[in-house]
Q: What sequence folds into this?
């Protein structure tokens, strides 16, 4: 079982390291989006810099790269002879967490990525489609009300973690899913610490705003990724 956990985590990390936001930014506008807007490679910054259609595409691709490692983890655990779904779930959770870490610190992009909201949701969706999908209307309501994506990210990731923990306590879903969701939520909130400061200051941009070139852009996106 241990080799399937390790292999799932490594594969998840390699898959998560693919920065679709960076790719789409280069294809649509010929830019490194880490030099613009928030400096992140996620869909929110793609919407700011490259438009809504490009942003939606990145959301779907980032969700998919969260889903894939979970199913790969299940397959590897099955190949390793792990008998029960709950035991296989640990390899699936390792794959999902690896994808989240890969998105935040991508191997292929100088370890400067995004905040893993869509990727984290994709992994959760693969683990428990009903629980994850049930939160989509809540997330849409939050975004529609405040028009600030970071508020949705900061609130929904911990809420999803609480749901997974509650389901594990109730014996409805494996503890492996809760073990995935809690550190993922903590990482996502931590990655939004700059957004939290701007929300407190009243300077956090609304959807589609704030896509200007960053004053500290260096051509590599290094400062952008580390501060925003």
A:
């Amino acid at each position: 079982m241990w080799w399937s956990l390790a292999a799932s985590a490594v594969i998840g990390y390699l898959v998560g390291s693919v920065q679709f936001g960076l790719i789409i930014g280069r294809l649509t506008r010929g830019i490194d989006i880490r030099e613009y807007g928030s400096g992140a490679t996620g869909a929110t910054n793609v919407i700011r810099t490259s438009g809504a259609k490009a942003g939606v595409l990145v959301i779907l691709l980032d969700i998919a790269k969260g889903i894939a490692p979970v199913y790969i983890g299940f397959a590897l655990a099955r190949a390793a002879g792990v008998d029960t779904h709950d035991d296989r779930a640990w390899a699936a959770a390792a794959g999902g967490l690896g994808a989240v870490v890969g998105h935040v610190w991508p191997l292929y992009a100088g370890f400067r990525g995004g905040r893993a909201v869509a990727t984290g949701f994709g992994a959760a969706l693969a683990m428990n489609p009903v629980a994850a999908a049930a939160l989509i209307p809540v997330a849409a309501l939050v975004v529609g009300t405040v028009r600030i994506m970071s508020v949705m990210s900061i609130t929904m990731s911990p809420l999803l973690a609480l749901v997974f923990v509650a389901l594990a306590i109730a014996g409805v879903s494996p503890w492996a899913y809760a073990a995935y969701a809690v550190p993922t939520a903590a990482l996502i909130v931590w990655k939004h610490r700059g957004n939290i400061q701007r929300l407190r200051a009243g300077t956090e941009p609304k959807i589609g705003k704030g896509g200007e070139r960053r004053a500290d852009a260096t051509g590599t996106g290094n400062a952008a990724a580390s501060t925003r």
